[in-house]
Design a protein that fits this description.
Strand order of the largest sheet: 2-3-1-4-5
Helix content: 10-25%
Oligomer: single chain
Order of helices and strands: EHEEHEE
Structural class: alpha+beta
Distance between the termini: 22 Å
Length: 108
């Protein structure tokens, strides 16, 4: 199982001129790397731009756990609204083909 985290490719507001407009990409990568180091998830593949979204890939747990991690990503400071998760697998030929889940998840 792979969960794709689709974040709208919107610039971070209020950045100084000349700054990378999507500074949140590095923040998400650091967050996921820290979780991977703790053994919570595995980063399945490098994140990448796909049209108007940036897609991160996580695996290494059940659907509920991976969606909870995706939900945490959606609530990180500076993450654009409209982030969604897509439940997929490692054999999918394209992004975004599985069921979509709106993020962040409602509290249990």
């Amino acid at each position: 199982m792979v969960v794709e985290i689709h974040v709208p490719l919107l610039p971070t507001p209020g950045l100084p001129d000349g700054s990378y407009p999507f500074s949140w990409v590095e923040e998400v990568e650091d967050f996921l790397s820290d979780l991977e180091g703790q053994g919570d998830v595995e980063v399945f593949d490098e994140g990448e731009e796909d049209g108007d979204v940036y897609v991160f890939f996580i695996t290494g747990g059940g659907e509920g756990h991976l969606l909870a991690v995706a939900s945490r990503v959606a609530t990180l400071p500076g993450i654009p609204a409209g982030t969604v998760a897509v439940v997929s697998n490692d054999e999918a030929e394209e992004f975004g083909l599985g069921p979509r889940v709106a993020l962040p998840l409602p509290p249990p």
